[in-house]
Amino acid sequence: MATLDMRDERAEAGAVASVVTQAFDVVVIGGGPAGMAAALSAHKAGAHVAIVEREQHLGGILRQCIHPGFGLSHFKQELTGPEYAQRFIDQVRATNIALFLDSMVIGVDSGESAEDAAVHTVTLMSPTGMLQLIGRAVVLAMGCRERTRSEIKIPGSRPAGVFTAGLAQRYINIENLKPGSRAVILGSGDIGLIMARRCTLEGISVEGVYELMPYANGLRRNVKNCLEDFGIPLHLSTTVTRVIGHDRVEAVEVSQVDEHLAPIPGTERIVPCDTLLLSVGLFPENELSVAAGVELDPRTRGAVVDQSLQTGVPGIFACGNVLHVHDLADNVTTESERAGAAAAAWALGAVGTAAGVAGAGCQLTVSPAGIAGYALPGRITAVGLTKLNFRVRRPVDAARVRILAGNEELFAGKVRPFKPSVMESFPLPAKVIQRALDLGVNEIVLSVDPVEEA
Amino acid sequence: MAETFDIAIVGAGITGCAIARRLARFDLSICVVEAANDIALGASKANGGLVHAGYDPAPGTVKAQVNARGCELYGAWAQELGFLFCRTGSMVLGFNDEDRAHLEKLRQNGLANGVPELAIIGPERIHELEPRASAQATCALWCPSTGFVDPFEVAIAALENAVANGVTFMRSAPVEAIEVADSGDDARFTLATPAGDVRCRYLINAAGNGAAHLSHMAGAEKFQMVWRQGNIVVLDKEPRTLMPLYPVPTPVSKGVIVTGTVHGNTVITATAAVREPGDTQTYASDVNALLTGARKLVPDLDTRRVVRAFAGGRPVIQGTNDFFIGQSAVLPGLFQAAGIQSPGVASAPAIAERMEHVMREAGVALRERADWDPIRRAPDDFDRAPLARKEELIESDPAWGQIVCRCETVPEAEIVAAIRRRPGAVSVEGVKRRCRAGMGRCQSGFCQSRVVAILARELGCDPSEVLLEDAGSWLVEGPLKGVR
After folding, report:
1. Which of A434, A445, B103, B148 has its CA 20 to 30 Å from the CA of residue A157?
2. Same-domain check for residues B39 and B175
3. In degrees, to the nearest 5, what angle opens at C-alpha B430 toward C-alphas B45 and B475?
4. Looking at the predicted structure, is the pLDDT value of residue A85 above 60?
């Protein structure tokens, strides 16, 4: 160690002497719902598949989501998180998909193989040592992480008792440990709502759920089932402005916020509690992707992908919460099945057949406008029926989706309400894409525009 | 019966640890008495980690002497103690003619203080040295000797080496009373602490923000401390570590500085406001001032990626901006190392050197031991280890391949080592400061429950007894349901 200048030091990582390698068609990073669905669909398409999972078990975050509400669309049946995961675990176990558990990926490197096709080297670390998996295609399915107290800059002291909702969920549902007796929850995202109910059921009194925005951020059904049914108050346009307590949380100060989300002086109120749970947003966990050279969309903080969910690095695909944060695991499954199939097609050399005919020179970017917070995929490289996903930034009672190219409106949807809690899905017909190409544009705009009510 | 030592050092901050390590080479029995349950829990953990070069303090002050000398000693210190130290150099950025005049004054100050190789440079050289420095900067004071460290790593390393050389470390031992016997007594001082009494012939006051209280308790100099509080923000890692960039200083502080860290993060440090003693709260106004100040120096800095905001108090002696290092004029046998505010980290090795000199002058017999070992071997840092070393470690123990903290790539074996070292970690934050588990962008959201389980296992206690930091900072109440 000793005297080091870090500035030129990072080049050293590449040199590997004699590491054991194994080759696959598709290497899936992450064994949660996204990774398992991608692996299974790649396997069905005939690919030789590996899953790398950092935990000892498959299932990812679903293992601690013991509440029901999973599987309604995929299995037409209401399941808990572990039950939903188990169905996929059983399917994976019934195949010859190679499992690398307890294995942490420390790098993804892309290079040219002998046949001129790109191959990717996934380096992983496990208690049995280091290993390199060579994949013709890689599927990124690492999921997301929770936004922290620091990122939302809650002032005050830094005692024990401030937990992200997911950490508290792990303590309660996995470790059987009680994180406190009297909780305040900041954020009405789905995890916050579900944890309000969980805490109540486990004998932890929930003083209230506080939400910065003037509306609940979670799904309507969760507001009803988790708060209203248990008489837990939801305080909108209110946030935590100070944490109080030197060693353990003793109270939090909450304040109402104005229309610019700034705390209103004079509205401060002290709420005694020993625990503050934060459910203030999720971020795709893309440090590995960035290191692999994948370009991110600053809006989603996930990869920029095309209609087949391929990133800017040929042969690397992304799906699930590492791509954009979903509200339903069922949607993660559907999206990841597409990514797995596309990765298999790429690896097995059948590119172009899966998602329409690769139009010569089809190279459109898709940009969000109006109240659309993002649009996915960000690139369209083939003419075919294309699934577009987006989320609005604020709730509206009446708005419509429009697809624009230059000055022309190519498509206008029905007028209907939109909510930020719901990830929207919208099929873009091939003819719309063709029309954009005919116009000679290189960008189409997905605009969600509120409609004045008569 | 209380144990008797030749020397008791009160305070295991960077100053106390540096002094303990300096004196550990002599044939003396030494005890470091710390109020908290771990090393560096006061001002030493709440600073920007900068090893300032020493052009700032007024010439002739104690600060001026120990700062430049401390900065000079850091290279050798890092070698011996095995901590990370980056000597990148720094720039004080000026934006107009008035600033340029101020930079010239700083340069003159620096020359008087013996700071090497200072130069006033123009925009082209600024851009060459740090491409991300503001293009609005018209001039800068370039100072090649500035560097940065992880301040708690330095304190921990120093005390580990001291303990390896026979120094005793007493934690959770706040000094509640001091009894002073006649001079000449073998145990002139008796310190009463909840962890037991400590008797000693010489007493060193390195109590940081508690230094005034300790001095009063002993019946020595009566001075007052001012809690000059500072907020600090840590941002996520950058592909390329930033060079420390300073604004032109204000009369009370160096202003909002942006610097890289030894682990590739960016730190914005620090605000300065006199607040209630003990106030370690962060304030929205301070954090905003930091982010705004930082963007002035580095316009493209992504200030949304805040990993951590924290605050601490600079131990300032009221009425002076200087350090107080020397034997008490009132109470012989008591040695003061008080008022060690900024640049305390940079000065630490020189303060220790000066303390040795002061004690020698006062007639304390200092005979070097033949068996003293100046080298502290740093624990294995898995994330930074070359791949071959990683493989070796996993082969030696599979727990090296069991990654617990995914943000900083910290395996279970590294956490266990942090707990088993002497003095080892006894809390979740203690683990974090030693091996970075929980230090990253998710702020322990994924790994905290695992670290709690490892601590409970290693310390032989229940998870409900595992602390985040010091007494009272419990994390979980206990089991939820009867069946475990």
Report:
1. B148
2. yes
3. 110
4. yes
Q: Give me the helices (H) in A51-118, please.
A: 81-93
pLDDT cut 90: percent of chain B above it: 95
Contact B441 A145 (CB under 8 A): yes
The closest of B406, B401, B403 to B443, measured between CA atoms, is B406
A159 CB neighbours in chain B (<8 A) are 468, 473
* Contact status, residue A297 vs residue A268, Cβ threshold 8 Å: no
pLDDT at A353: 43
Q: What is the ipTM of this complex?
A: 0.95
Do residue B468 and residue A159 have CB atoms under 8 angstroms apart? yes
Let me know whether B126 and B234 are in one domain: yes
- Pairwise CA distance, residues B247 & A56, whole Å: 49
Run of H or E residues at B434:
helix B428-435
Selected for mutation to probe chain A from B429, B435, B473 (highest A CB count within 10 Å) is B473
- Please indicate whether residue B52 is annotated as part of the active site: yes
SS3 B168: strand
pLDDT band at A6 (very low <50, low <70, confident <90, very high): very low
Interchain pair B477, A179: CB under 8 A: yes
**B193-205 confidence digits (pLDDT tens):** 999 999 999 999 9
d(CA A221, CA B365): 77
* Cis peptide bond upstream of A284, omega within 30: no
Band of pLDDT at residue B250, cut at 50, 70 and 90: confident
Name the nearest CA neighbour of B459 among B427, B437, B412, B422: B427
Q: Residue B256: which domain range?
A: 86-147+226-317
Which domains are delineated in chain A? 18-145+283-347 (3.50.50.60), 148-280 (3.50.50.60), 364-450 (2.60.40)
Q: Are residues B279 and B248 in the same domain?
A: yes
Same domain, B265 and B344: no
| Domains contained in chain B, number | 3
A5, A10, A164: residue with CB nearest B445? A164
Question: Is residue B417 a part of any domain in this protein?
Answer: yes
Give the domain CATH number at B173.
3.50.50.60
- Show residues of chain B in contact with A66, CB under 8 Å: none
Q: In the structure encoding, which two tokens stand for residue B296, read together?
A: 């002035």
All residues of chain B having their beta carbon less than 8 Å from the beta carbon of residue A130 are: 387, 390-391, 394
Q: Is residue B80 part of a domain?
A: no
pLDDT at A117: 60
Which tens digit of pLDDT belongs to each residue from A10-51?
Answer: 334 444 456 789 999 999 999 999 999 999 999 999 999 999
Instruction: Answer whether residue A116 shows pLDDT above 80.
Output: no
Q: Is the minimum CB–CB distance between A175 and chain B shorter than 8 Å? A: yes
pLDDT at B453 over 80: yes
Q: Examine residue B341 and state whether it is found in any structural domain, yes or no.
A: yes
Instruction: Pick from B443, B454, B464 the residue to mutate for testing the A interface (most A CBs within 10 Å).
Output: B443
Q: What is the pTM of this model?
A: 0.94
Q: Looking at the structure, do residues B206 and B231 belong to the same domain, yes or no?
A: no
Helix (H) or strand (E) holding A408: strand A408-412
User: Between residues 301 and 320 of chain B, which touch chain A (CB distance below 8 Å)?
Assistant: 304-310
Residue B92 belongs to domain with CATH number: 3.30.9.10
pLDDT at A330 (0 to 100): 97
Average pLDDT over residues B457-474: 98
A390-411: average pLDDT: 94
> What CATH number corresponds to the domain at position B442?
1.10.10
Note whether B206 and B243 are same-domain residues.
no
Pick B449's closest partner by Cβ from A158, A167, A178.
A167
Q: For residue B224, give how far its alpha carbon lies from the nearest alpha carbon of chain A (Å).
A: 24
CB contact, 8 Å: A181 with chain B? yes
In terms of phi and psi (left: phi > 0; alpha: psi -120 to 50; beta: otherwise), the region of A203 is left
- Let me know whether B328 and B216 are in one domain: yes
The reply to whether B179 and B127 lie within a common domain is no
Q: Residue B72: inside a domain, yes or no? A: no
Distance CA B247, CA B255 (A): 6
